[in-house]
Specification:
The chain is an alpha/beta fold. The chain has one domain: Alpha-Beta Complex (Spore Coat Polysaccharide Biosynthesis Protein SpsA, Chain A), CATH 3.90.550. The protein contains eight helices and 16 strands. A hairpin with a 2-residue loop joins β5 and β6.
Length: 258
């Protein structure tokens, strides 16, 4: 089954890290966040990836094309790259990666539409290249297959950006709650789609999160898999630092592989 990863955004809210590289190449613990996402899928047996490239896509291409050389000892005759022999096996040796240029200004739905030819089979998965989670992808896929609709998104409980103050009617402060979880749910990617979803995608200006998902919902073809565990997007420098600190201290919930 193919896993499509959206890697083409500008990452403007993380400009400190993305001025010269795309956001999926921002490193968490000396590895690009893209690597972490792919490792999560691989842990669940999903090792065929289609990367939708856009802004500074050449950086991702160079990383993938040079992966063997940068992660193994090797011997070769200078000037003859084909002679290279890699001495150290690594856990990613059986990854299959398609590097697809989907345009610098293309929107999310348009990017998925552009890679239709690389998606075989009736079911495929899609996620963003800047969010980490400990989603049970096997349970997600089972949920999708059981309900029989065209699309499934993963939803997590929204968290307040601010601490909450509970105030009694007379104005007395009863208690403080530091950034509590709210009753609302937000979608975080980790989609499962049937091929019929391509019929809902139009041109390069198609935003997946707007008309396509809204039309799927209206048609009764969109379901939500509720994830009660960890999720964190990397939209800001503060979030980047938080993810880096979790990894550095050995407390990264998304590291489900060994």
């Amino acid at each position: 089954m193919k896993v499509v990863i959206l890697c083409g955004g500008l990452g403007t809210r993380l400009r400190e890290e993305t001025e010269f590289r795309p956001k999926p190449m921002v490193e968490i613990g000396q590895r690009p966040i893209l690597w972490h996402i792919m490792k999560l899928y691989a842990h669940h047996g999903l090792r065929e990836f289609v990367l939708c490239l856009g802004y500074r896509g050449n950086v991702i291409k160079e990383y993938i094309l040079n992966y063997e050389a940068m992660n193994s000892d090797c011997t070769l005759r200078l000037g003859d790259r084909k002679s290279a022999v890699y001495h150290d096996a690594h856990a990613e040796h059986d990854f299959t990666v398609t590097l697809a240029d989907t345009g610098e200004d293309t929107m999310t739905g348009g990017r998925i539409r552009r890679v239709e030819r690389y998606v075989d089979g009736n079911t495929f998965m899609v996620t963003y290249g800047d969010g980490l989670a400990d989603v049970d992808l096997g349970a997600l896929l089972s949920f999708h297959r059981a309900h029989g609709r065209l699309a499934t998104l993963t939803a997590v409980r929204a968290q307040s950006r601010f601490g909450i103050v509970d105030v009694d009617p007379d104005g007395r402060v009863a208690r403080f709650r530091e950034k509590p979880m709210l009753d609302d749910w937000v979608h975080v990617g980790f989609f499962v789609f049937q091929r019929g979803v391509f019929d809902y995608l139009t041109g390069d200006d198609c935003v997946l999160e707007r008309e396509p998902l809204e039309r799927l919902a209206a048609a009764g073809q969109l379901m939500a898999f509720r994830h009660e565990g960890f999720f964190q997007a990397m939209d800001t420098y503060r979030e980047y630092k938080a993810l880096s600190d979790l990894w550095a201290t050995g407390r990264a919930p998304w590291k489900v592989w060994t």
